[in-house]
Automatic annotation (TrEMBL):
It comes from Rhamnusium bicolor. Pfam families: DEAD, HA2_C, Helicase_C, OB_NTP_bind, WHD_HA2. One of its GO terms (cellular component) is nucleolus. GO terms for biological process: positive regulation of transcription by RNA polymerase I. Its EC number is 3.6.4.13. It comes from the Eukaryota. PANTHER family: ATP-DEPENDENT RNA HELICASE (PTHR18934), ATP-DEPENDENT RNA HELICASE DHX33 (PTHR18934:SF118). CDD domains: DEXHc_DHX33, SF2_C_RHA. This is RNA helicase. Residues 248-432 form the Helicase C-terminal domain.
Length: 691
């Protein structure tokens, strides 16, 4: 949901009344009276908007430029360097806690490397987000200096991108990538140190890695192989819970430098938190002391520079957040939860916390995995607040009441307990482990594991529900870094003679959206892309766009993308992804084929993986999912919106006030008899015409 408010018009939105005005007797919390050991946090991307206002950066400008090495020495972690190295040397497993920005991610791997604690192995550092893995690796390579570029001593590996070499000693990688590597070598012998960073985020991948590295460490010890050191790093977390899981390992706390933050709650609840955030921003902007800003009597407050920060954003745009603004300009950062802990922006003085987050959740009962806006946990609220106190005393405006805060969950639920486990179940089976018997730190609900096994069985990946054995098809499916439903589609393409088309569609579904829809030009974008629209729906519309893009000459691409509101970076990325998937297909001996304009072939092929994602037209625009009889609707952004095909296959579900399906293709019910007869029987699905 994009904000419909036009920043720049202070009349929009209702201004919430805060319990406290800007100054008198604020509740001050500082590092000391922060909840002592806030419990585990789980966030997932993409998350909901919150607003961060950075103070005027003129201070920043007046500071003499300090060298990058000087900057490293100023980080809180620097003083603790020797002590840390000693602890790392002494303990085979260590938990390191420290405020965001204290230097954990960038410095600790470098310290280990300079002391050669990793000996002949490589240091792996995992990040839940690909942006973080890439940007941190770039930064560390730069700190390394000596003409080193990323990919030398410091490298990174994220899905579909490997920037490492034989020289690489410190490797930043997404947690998903390390998990894939474990599928090829369960003991992770390439590494002697594994750092699981941002552990408090409790992504599924990090949670599974906890078990994998713990086991690898034990087995390597038993077999007298090179030992494996495990370091768990995090902003805040339930240390006891983590320590207990890792055989009561040692934990250290790096004290950061933080300043007090004044916290304000609203007097009454505000349902329209977006409007309230915007209104609060303008109040602060007008009233807050402009500090060193030159006062212009004609301007109510200083000029504003608005930046956005979210995981799916193009990298160059993301970087603008870190650039200092012009003198006398106030910088406003509108961010998702990515700014909560994984990135550090300097100069933040005010935080406006919407209290909301967009998170993924899976409901075994409905079989749907939803993206849903929901309340944050108290722990997340404190993290957001903390962003205001990095450089000096700050202010945090919570767009919720104190009693709403008290009703929030203390900690967030780990993703593993609320997400679809298909991919994890398949990955574990590839490691020879049945999900029900895995050593999870927090066990996922049994129904979710069983639902995943059922799905794998229906896809033909396992022989039976209790077995640890993958079928030959399942073993091939595990080779793809994809949801098993998508791998199944690629592996079925030969049968339908449509590998070319299938590769394109799956690559596009695995990348960020290639469609740009700026709110002010939405109609224009839709009109100019109308010619690509397929009556079969969104997947084929995307295929048409991709085909056309490939026909445009190299020199005209930028202009073509601009004219058609296509994100060029994302479409080029999708092409890379496509190449890599094609390589894996070749290794699986699937021959290249094209169905040309025979779209039925492609539609049937999509159904071989996504037969559990079909909805049937019920009445007046309402659809019902075949799988669990859930009422849903076609999302207005779909090319099928306004039409009423009998059956649609969907790849995404979004819940706002209603449950919407996005990314659709029309299918025929007859095909289901052909493609998934066993599934129809198990669910007892019959179509109207049968009755
Ligand atoms: O991991 P932690 O939050 O403790 O800190 P870090 O990511 O190691 O960041 C330490 C400092 O490095 C930040 O305060 C930034 O000044 C700097 N940094 C940067 O300039 N660019 C990055 N991509 C990452 C960090
Ligand atoms: Mg970090």
């Amino acid at each position: 949901m994009e904000s419909k408010y036009n920043i720049g018009n202070s009349k929009t939105g209702t201004l919430p009344k805060f319990q406290m005005k800007l100054k008198p007797n604020p509740i001050i919390f500082s590092n000391k009276n922060l909840p002592s050991s806030p419990k585990k946090i789980k966030l997932s991307e993409p998350e909901h908007k919150k607003v961060i206002i950075s103070s005027n950066n003129s201070n920043f400008h007046n500071k003499p430029k300090i060298s990058i090495q000087e900057q490293r020495r100023k980080l809180p972690v620097f003083d603790k360097r020797n002590k840390l190295l000693e602890l790392i040397k002494r303990h085979k497993t260590l938990i390191i806690l420290g405020e965001t920005g204290s230097g954990k991610t960038t410095q600790i791997p470098q310290y280990i490397n300079s002391a050669r604690l990793q000996e002949n192995g490589i240091i792996a550092v995992t990040q839940p987000r690909r942006v973080a893995a890439i940007s941190v690796a770039l930064r560390v390579a730069q700190e390394y200096g000596q003409g080193m570029s990323v990919g030398d001593v410091v490298g990174y590996t994220v899905r579909f991108e490997d920037v490492t070499s034989k020289k690489t000693k410190i490797k930043y990688l997404t947690d998903g990538m390390l998990l894939r590597e474990a599928m090829f070598d369960r003991l992770l012998m390439e590494y002697t140190v594994v750092i699981l960073d941002e552990a408090h985020e409790r992504t599924i991948h990090t949670d599974v890695l906890f078990g994998i590295v713990k086991k690898a460490q034990r087995i390597r010890e038993e077999r007298n192989l090179a030992s494996l050191k495990i370091i768990i790093m995090s902003a805040t977390m339930d240390v006891d819970h983590f320590s207990r899981y890792f055989n009561n390992c040692q934990a250290v706390y790096l004290e950061g430098r933080t300043y007090p933050v004044n916290v304000f709650y609203t007097v009454k609840p505000h349902d329209d938190y977006q409007a309230s955030c915007v209104a609060t921003f303008f109040k602060i902007h007008k009233e807050a002391p402009p500090k060193l800003l030159a006062k212009d009597p004609d301007v109510q407050g200083p000029p504003i520079k608005v930046c956005t920060l979210y995981a799916a954003q193009p990298g160059t745009q993301q970087m603008t957040v870190f650039q200092p603004s012009q003198p006398n300009t106030r910088k406003v950062v509108i961010s998702t939860n990515i700014a909560e802990t994984s990135v550090t922006i300097t100069g933040i003085k005010y935080v406006i916390d919407s209290g909301m987050v967009k998170a993924r959740s899976f409901h075994p009962a409905t079989g749907l995995e939803l993206l849903k806006v929901q309340r944050i946990s108290q722990e997340q609220a404190w993290q957001r607040t903390g962003r205001a106190g990095r450089d000096s005393e700050g202010y945090c405006y919570r767009i919720y009441t104190r009693s709403q805060f008290e009703l929030m969950k203390k900690t967030s639920i780990p993703e593993i307990q609320r997400a679809n486990l298909n991919t994890v179940a398949l990955q574990l089976l590839a490691l020879g482990i049945h999900g029900l018997h895995f050593d999870f730190m927090d066990k996922p609900p049994k129904e979710a594991i069983l639902a995943a096994f059922e799905q794998l069985k229906l896809l033909g990946a396992v022989e039976n529900m209790d077995s640890n054995n993958l079928s030959p098809l399942g073993r091939k499916m595990a080779k793809f870094p994809l949801d098993p439903r998508f791998s199944k589609i690629l592996l079925s393409a030969q049968q339908f003679g449509c590998l070319e088309e299938t590769l394109t569609v799956i690559a596009l579904l695995s990348s960020e959206s290639i469609l740009l829809s700026p709110p002010s030009k939405r109609d224009q974008a839709q009109n100019v892309r109308q010619k690509f629209c397929s009556a079969y729906g969104d997947h084929i519309t995307l295929l048409n766009i991709y085909r056309e893009f490939n026909n445009v000459g190299q020199n005209n691409r930028r202009l073509w993308c601009h004219e058609h509101f296509i994100n060029m970076r994302n479409i080029l990325h999708a092409r890379e992804v496509r190449n890599q998937l094609e390589d894996i297909c070749k290794k699986c001996d699937i021959s290249i084929s094209s169905c040309g304009s025979q779209m039925d072939q492609l539609r049937k092929c999509l159904l071989t993986g996504l037969f559990t994602n079909v909805a049937e037209l019920h009445r007046d625009r309402h659809y019902i999912t075949l799988d669990r009889r859930q009422v849903v609707q076609i999302h207005p952004s779909s090319s099928l919106y306004g039409q009423q095909p009998h059956f649609v296959l969907f790849t995404e579900v979004v819940q706002t006030s209603k449950c919407y399906l996005r990314s659709l293709t029309t299918v025929e019910s007859d095909w289901l008899y052909e493609i998934a007869p066993e599934y129809l029987k198990i669910r007892n699905i019959r179509f109207n015409k049968d009755s």
